[in-house]
């Protein structure tokens, strides 16, 4: 009877030690996550057009091409996972932002805005929708997961 207790106690001790190491590693690395959307928190939909002044937003379309009270510009960050941000302004307020991304997973979006409310599959592509007016496209060779890479995130004003 004593023989069975020693291996059980030893096995349980090893399991608890490994669990402690894994949890400690996770807690120590929790700060490593870099939110790719955080630098653009000041220019979310609903913000006034003046919020764009701190960013190099190049206006590409003349006013004659767009409906009245609309404008369009693009921000091209110098580095990072955000390659391009397209901005649509309506009635002097930011109406829509579209982020073109590289090296970002759907989990980054879920970590920032929560899990998507709906996911639809179209061949190898997935479209994720949030009720708050957020849309993202992801690719996957198999099942849709939070590690699926995304190419674009679009955020619209909920008006």
Short description:
The chain is α+β, with helices and mostly antiparallel strands and 159 residues long. The chain has helices at 2-28, 106-113; strands spanning 57-59, 70-75, 82-90, 93-105, 118-122, 125-130, 134-139, 149-156. It contains two helices and eight strands; from the N terminus they run αββββαββββ.
Low-confidence parts: none
Computed Rg: 23 Å
C-alpha termini separation: 71 Å
Mass-distribution shape: elongated
Helix content: 10-25%
> What is the number of independent domains?
2
Q: Give the class from helix and strand content and strand pairing.
A: alpha+beta
The number of strands is: 8
Strand fraction equals 35-45%
Q: What is the overall pLDDT average? A: 82
Order of strands in the sheet with most strands: 1-2-3-4-8-7-6-5
Number of helices: 2
Sheet of most strands? 8 strands, antiparallel
Order of helices and strands: HEEEEHEEEE
